């Protein structure tokens, strides 16, 4: 009998194998201990940045947040760069690893609360309940602090099983901008997947899909005249606008006859929990209606409506747009003419692609195994920056510290006791993606 002689593996070969597809998964107990050890520093950093007032458009506050992030990420080995416009500073922190997956991590540094809000609602943290309050405490200062300590935890664990980590801290997420969209386009094309921490819902809520949205302006030109003596030679712009609204609204999904049943109180009475499942598939809102006419006895010669359309299914965008244009091209009041502008400010849907679905299932399994908890998937009618990246790469949202009553200065809270389990889940998800190629097309 003969034997095949095999040369022993060199140290270099072993090192290469250790960071290959056969890399050993992270030890969950070690991850938990590492992240939990970050908690006191996380709370202090959260307080520090909540007390940096940085409402959207405040250049000084945005720059101060950017400098704080730069000072924190550079010692961790990240290359930090700024991209600025007249109102904000956007931060990009990058670091090369030894694996394959290029991971884009999204957060934002701006808030909706104006400068001076801190004096009205000072930062507070209740160590017993874990609840923090303050301007922008949840949306999104808690997530910014979390992402710093997510990065610090990876360093303490010696974790390098990624091709590149790219953190993007948006300076004007609340209102958007051309620079923001440009950066999201650039960065998503340089990455394989997106993990976003914005506005995480309570009780392990995870947002897996969001609607697309499109804006329109509809202007009706009529013929004025005296309402008593000349209705026969006039053409009412407001009547035609009402007709247009009625016809366009038929494109939307039906709404309940009693909206009170779907308020927070109404759902509670019915024993139901809201995680976005009651949001209609297609929603249309006429937010602004105007006319230059100020007299009751004059037939209006002009009328304007500004409206938006939102839906989950990206395939519906073209269909609804075509229907709106057809309605606008066929006015029912003789003598009126319609000028339709749009769609503009069009935002893509955040779709739950097959790759995103695999990541979601992985996250659910991790949380069940490590914390015995059930992750609830949320649908969002609102838009976040994750909508933009999902055009190019699988994206899941809501991985951050859990937040409630965002945008309400008096009621907004961040549940800081969710920092450790949420961050542990995010790290173990990242590791599972790296080892099993969950974000790859199959």
From TrEMBL:
Pfam families for this protein: M20_dimer (PF07687), Peptidase_M20 (PF01546)
Q: What range does the record give for the signal peptide?
A: 1-23
Gene3D superfamilies registered for this protein in UniProt = 3.30.70.360, Zn peptidases
Tell me which cofactor or cofactors this protein depends on.
Zn(2+)
Domain called Peptidase M20 dimerisation: residue spans: 210-331
Keyword set for this entry? Hydrolase, Metal-binding, Signal, Zinc
The molecular function terms in GO held by this entry are:
hydrolase activity; metal ion binding
* SUPFAM superfamilies attached to this UniProt entry: Bacterial exopeptidase dimerisation domain, Zn-dependent exopeptidases
User: This protein is called what?
Assistant: M20 family metallopeptidase
According to its UniProt entry, this protein's organism is: Crenobacter caeni
């Amino acid at each position: 009998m003969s034997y095949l002689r095999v040369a022993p593996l060199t140290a270099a070969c072993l090192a290469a194998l250790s960071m290959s597809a056969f890399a050993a998964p992270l030890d969950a107990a070690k991850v938990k201990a590492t992240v939990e050890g970050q908690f006191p520093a996380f709370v202090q950093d959260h307080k520090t940045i909540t007390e940096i007032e940085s409402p959207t458009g405040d250049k000084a506050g945005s720059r101060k947040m950017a400098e704080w992030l730069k000072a924190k990420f550079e010692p961790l080995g990240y290359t930090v760069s700024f991209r600025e416009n007249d109102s904000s500073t956007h931060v990009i922190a990058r670091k090369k690893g030894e694996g394959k997956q290029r991971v884009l991590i999204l957060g934002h540094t701006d808030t909706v609360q104006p400068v001076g809000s801190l004096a009205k609602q000072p930062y507070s943290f209740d160590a017993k309940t874990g609840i923090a309050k303050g301007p922008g405490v949840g949306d999104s200062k808690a997530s910014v602090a979390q992402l710093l300590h997510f990065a610090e935890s990876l360093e303490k664990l010696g974790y390098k099983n990624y091709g590149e980590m790219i953190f993007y801290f948006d300076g004007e997420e609340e209102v958007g901008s051309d620079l923001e969209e440009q950066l999201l386009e650039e960065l998503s094309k340089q990455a394989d997947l997106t993990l976003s921490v914005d506005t995480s819902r309570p009780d392990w809520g995870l947002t897996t899909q969001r609607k697309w949205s499109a804006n329109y302006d509809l202007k009706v030109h009529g013929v004025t005249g005296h309402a008593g003596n000349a209705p026969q030679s006039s053409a009412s712009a407001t009547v035609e606008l009402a007709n247009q609204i009625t016809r366009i609204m038929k494109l939307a999904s039906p709404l309940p006859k009693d909206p009170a049943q779907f308020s927070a109180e109404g759902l509670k009475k019915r024993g139901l929990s809201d995680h976005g499942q009651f949001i209609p598939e297609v929603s249309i809102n006429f937010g602004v209606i105007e006319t230059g006419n100020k007299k009751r006895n004059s037939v209006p010669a002009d009328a304007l409506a500004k409206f938006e359309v939102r839906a989950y299914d990206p395939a519906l965008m073209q269909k609804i747009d075509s229907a709106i244009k057809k309605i606008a091209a066929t006015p029912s009041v003789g003598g009126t003419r319609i000028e339709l502008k749009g769609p503009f400010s069009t935002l893509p849907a955040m779709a739950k692609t097959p790759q995103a679905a695999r990541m979601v299932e992985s996250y659910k399994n991790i949380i069940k195994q490590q914390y015995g908890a059930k992750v609830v998937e949320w649908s969002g009618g609102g838009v976040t920056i994750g909508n933009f990246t999902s055009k190019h790469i699988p994206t899941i949202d809501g991985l951050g510290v859990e937040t409630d009553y965002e945008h309400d200065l008096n009621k907004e809270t961040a549940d800081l006791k969710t920092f450790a389990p949420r961050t542990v889940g995010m790290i173990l998800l990242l590791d599972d993606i790296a080892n099993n190629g969950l974000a790859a097309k199959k």
